[in-house]
Design brief:
- The protein is of the alpha/beta class.
- The chain contains ten helices and ten strands.
- It has helices at residues 34-38, 48-63, 91-103, 121-130, 145-158, 175-181, 198-203, 221-229, 259-262, 269-282; strands spanning 3-11, 80-85, 136-139, 164-171, 189-197, 210-218, 237-239, 255-256, 288-294, 301-308.
- β9 (288-294) and β10 form a beta hairpin.
- α2 packs across α4 and α5 crosses α10 (269-282).
- The two termini are 20 Å apart.
- 50% of the residues are buried.
Length: 314
């Protein structure tokens, strides 16, 4: 089954469209204001990770032609799955709740804030907001989590569990995350894709902006690249968080590190990289793009190939 991407949604500082993800200037834009983007109704008790994910989700559903400005979903809610990825997104809520319980008691916890400590709060918030009643998954899988989420969204479609999946990656920057990770150059934003079967996309007249190719998880960068590129030729560009590493792997292929402009993306990285690949196709890049996340350490490496879908149709 051919799996295509039919929409991209961004809630990132300084990025209005996928082409902006190719920036190399390292300049940070102003933080996203979710209330200004989608209105404040329903956001009051949501953690920032969920708010950012809702912004990206609203944009990707509109971009894919699934959520017109003057109405509800154009497809059955049961046909849309949600796969979210975030390693650190609600860490501040979890730590605040744990500290409050330790210092005082459970009486100190607000019943309105406690749901935000759930590990699947992002995925469930997106599904409930937009009436997406297909399978609902939340991945917290280390550096490969975002790319794994794209793969599992495609796998749900290929398995017939849904016709399409909204895949969202989100991370936030706050004092808790900075203290526990020791990092200050962190992503504060969300990225979303709609992946669906080519048949379903054509049936509703949707335009494919990319096609998902081979995915693999391996123990090293070299092994992963060899696996996903087997029989597929040389990619036009390689999106990797280690653009200066492993020069012997696909020598001569241009590399791009999205974290230079947007910060360390953790669980959102793979989704961000795929969106950047789509930006590259839109800017005239043809053929295929290679995306990898992870390293040769125990966490392993995930890789995927995306191919240009041409002009497609709407």
């Amino acid at each position: 089954m051919r799996i295509v991407v039919t929409g991209v949604g961004l809630a990132l500082p300084g990025a209005e469209d996928p082409a902006a993800l190719l920036r190399t200037d390292g300049q940070r834009g102003e933080p996203v204001d979710p209330g200004a983007r989608i209105g404040r109704r329903g956001l009051r008790y949501k953690d920032r990770a969920s708010q950012l994910a809702l912004c990206a989700a609203a944009e990707v559903l509109a971009d894919a032609g699934l959520l017109p400005a003057d109405g509800g979903l154009t497809v059955a809610g049961e046909s849309v799955a949600v796969v979210a990825s975030s390693n650190l997104g609600n860490l501040d809520t979890v730590c605040d709740v744990a500290s409050a319980i330790a210092e005082e008691s459970t009486d100190r916890i607000s019943p309105m804030a406690l749901p935000n400590a759930s590990s699947n709060v992002v995925a469930s918030s997106v599904a409930m907001k937009f009436g997406l009643r297909g399978p609902n998954l939340m991945l917290c899988n280390g550096p490969t989590s975002g790319l794994d989420a794209v793969h599992w969204g495609a796998a749900l479609v290929a398995a017939g569990r849904c016709e399409r999946a909204l895949v969202v990656g989100v991370e936030t920057r706050n004092h808790v995350v900075e203290a526990l990770t020791g990092e200050v150059d962190l992503l504060d934003g969300a990225v979303a894709l709609v992946v669906e079967s080519d048949e379903a996309a054509r049936a509703r007249g949707a335009r494919a902006v990319a096609e998902l190719g081979q995915y693999s998880r391996e123990g090293s960068v070299a092994a992963c690249v060899d696996r996903v590129l087997a029989g597929g030729g040389v990619p036009g560009i390689w999106f990797t968080p280690d653009a200066d590493e492993r020069p012997e792997v696909t020598p001569g292929t241009p590399r791009h590190d999205v974290t230079g402009a947007f910060g360390l993306a953790s669980g959102a990285l793979g989704v961000l990289q795929c969106a950047a690949a789509i930006g590259w196709f839109g800017a005239g890049g043809g053929g295929s793009a290679l995306v990898t996340a992870g390293d040769d350490a125990a966490d392993g490496v995930a890789g995927m190939v995306l191919r240009s879908a041409g002009k497609g149709e709407r």
